[in-house]
Each structure stands twice: as structure tokens, then as C-alpha cells.
Amino acid sequence: GLKIKEDGLGEVQIAEEVITIIAGLAATEVEGVCSMGGNITKELVSRLGMKNLSKGVRVEVTEEGKIEVFVTINIAYGYAIPAVSGNVQEKVKAAIENMTGLEVSGVNVRIADVDMKSAVE
Predict the structure, then answer these.
(1) CA distances from 25 to 13, 18, 92 (A)
(2) What is the pLDDT of residue 95?
(3) Is 63 exposed, middle or buried (0-12, 13-18, 19+ CB in 10 A)?
(4) H or E element, residue 4
(5) Average model confidence (pLDDT) across the chain
(6) Residue 12 β-bridge partners
(7) Contacts of residue 62, Cβ cutoff 8 Å, sequence gap at least 6
(8) For residue 43, which phi and psi values (nearest 5 degrees)?
(9) Is 80 exceeded by the pLDDT of residue 47?
(10) 35-46 burial, b if ≥16 CB within 10 A, otherwise e?
(11) Beta bridge partners of 107
């Protein structure tokens, strides 16, 4: 686990899996992202549970104790990839930092697939 707090009251640790779930949820909230790597959509997550969300996310802890995130997403056809990727990077970084207090050094986005079914009308 990642230690996020240690003081007179004790310590708080977060499992890496929690960070991958936060990242996955943040990424799927971005318009144009139709699913995470492994075709994990929001609907699928509500049916199968959170654990599956982390399939498209990898988290590495740097030597300085910062978090580097790697997300694999499938994009809906018709969306501008640079814009969507930028939104994913910002959303994921903000969500992890706000919820855990850990610093995110980078969010790396890989576009794995383009989904024609969710094309922009």
C-alpha cells in the first residue's frame, strides 16, 4: 500500500488498486471516452464491479513517491484525440490528487481502439 499519512494518530495507507479505480472512473467520465482498455464501459462497471475498471489502468510509484499513471482508453469515433486525451490527463490527475493527497507526476494515455458504434451523430 501507499502511505499517505503518518502522525501521532497512526498511519493511513491506500492500496494501489484504489488509485487505479479512481483513475478509471475519472477517465470514463470524459466525453469521447467510450471505454477503458479491455472494453470496460461504465455500464459494465456497474454490473461487474469496480475491480474491472483497473484493467485499463496501471500505476507506478516513482522514487520520489509520486504517482505515474498509464491509462488505456477506447475513443468514440469523431472525437478529437488530442482534446480527449488532454481532458483524461487533467481529470485523472485532479481526481487522484484530490482524493488521496498524493502527487501525480504524469498521466500517460494510450488510445487502444476507436469505437464506431458510439460515433458522434
Answers:
(1) 20, 11, 8
(2) 97
(3) exposed
(4) strand 2-7
(5) 86
(6) 5
(7) 68, 105
(8) -65, -40
(9) no
(10) bbbeebbbebbe
(11) 69
Alpha-carbon gap, residue 40 to 16, rounded angstroms: 19
- Name which residue leads in pLDDT, 30 or 53: 30
84 band by pLDDT with thresholds 50, 70 and 90: very high
Its pTM stands at: 0.84
Instruction: Please say whether the beta carbons of 93 and 104 come within 8 A.
Output: yes
Please tell me whether residue 32 adopts helix, strand or coil conformation: coil
Q: How far apart are CA 31 and CA 76, in angstroms?
A: 9
CA distance 121 to 110: 24
Residue 11 has, within 13 A of its CA and on its CB side, a CA count of 7
